[in-house]
Amino acid sequence: MPFVRVTSARNHGVSPLHQLLLTLRFYALGTMLISVADFVGVSISTAGRIVRDISSAIANMYDEYIIVHQQSAEKFYRIAGFPRVLAAIDCTHIRIQSPCHVVGEEFRNRKGYFSLNVQAICDADLKFMNVVARWPGSAHDATIFNNSILRAQCDAGQFGNRWLLGDSAYPNRPYLLTSILTPNTGGEHRYNEAHIKTRNTIERTFGIWKRRFPVVALTMRLSLPKVQAIIIATAVLHNICRSNNLEEVPAEVELPPADIIEELQNMNVQDVSERASLINNYFS
Predict the structure, then answer these.
(1) How far apart are CA 107 and CA 36, in angstroms?
(2) The whole model's pTM is what?
(3) Residue limits of the DDE Tnp4 domain (predicted)?
């Protein structure tokens, strides 16, 4: 693996292979560092440094394995007949301990626990195409998107006429379509059904990711930089597993309950015109 070195000559150090195995074991167990420190006979502090270094090394491969592309539209269409889909978008909360007493409450989410609110988009093969892991749990999904590079790329028309599909926590835009809260016509009902089935790919992606790497499903008691590196590193590894058709793993830990979808507010005619046109010309 690139960027991995033996950092100590004492006791011959810990080989890169054993550093990697220790880190993967930590991702798989999702427990305290002491549970993996004994795995290669190192101290807890050494285990912490190894997890930090290996996670950072894997996270540095983000641009190689997590890429926004436009090659999934046909596969998305085969799910429920929804055309021109770029990706499905959503956020998920990763549990953490309170960072500190000064800013800790910023990380307390609406359910009362501390977390990072992680935004991601996925393709039809359930691979991550973009991951944002720097916002506290109190941040709203729409706030994260509105301040993201992804939103700027969409505003600039970088993805052409492709759509993102999001839930009602997001504002409806010409390039980001949400479901209709109170559908009335047959076309609106068909639109909602196709939208929900297609958007479900991001929920499935989160589920597979958290089952394969329970460390992101349980509470991480590490510093924020380490937590962020682990989130990105496991997302990279998830894509590698998907690309190599590795079998999905059964759930061995009880995952946190699914996020509650918030009601969409402050929609206007200009925002929903693209969605209305799609319903009238395609789903009606």
Answers:
(1) 27
(2) 0.87
(3) 89-239
Q: Are 166 and 275 in contact (CB under 8 A)?
A: no
In the chain, DSSP finds a helix count (H) and a strand count (E) of: 10, 5
Rg (CA), the chain: 20
**115 and 95 Cβ atoms separated by less than 8 Å:** yes
pLDDT tens-digit map of 14-61: 889 999 999 999 999 887 888 888 877 899 999 999 999 999 999 999
Residue 127: which of 228, 224, 227, 246 has the closest Cα?
246
What strands, in cross-sheet order, belong to the sheet with 163-165? 128-136, 115-122, 85-95, 163-165, 176-177
Handedness of CA 133, 135, 139, 144 (dihedral sign): negative
pLDDT in tens, 99-151: 887 778 899 999 999 999 999 999 999 999 999 999 999 999 999 999 999 99
For the four alpha carbons of 242, 209, 132 and 61, in that order, the dihedral sign comes to negative
The answer to whether 107 touches 96, Cβ cutoff 8 Å, is: yes
Distance CA 240, CA 243 (A): 5
Q: Which residues pair with 92 in a beta bridge?
A: 118
Query: What residues have CB less than 8 Å from 259, skipping those under 6 apart?
Result: 90, 91, 92, 93
Instruction: Give the model confidence (pLDDT) of 63-108 as tens digits.
Output: 999 999 999 999 999 999 999 999 999 999 999 998 887 778 899 9
CB atoms within 10 A of CB 71: 11
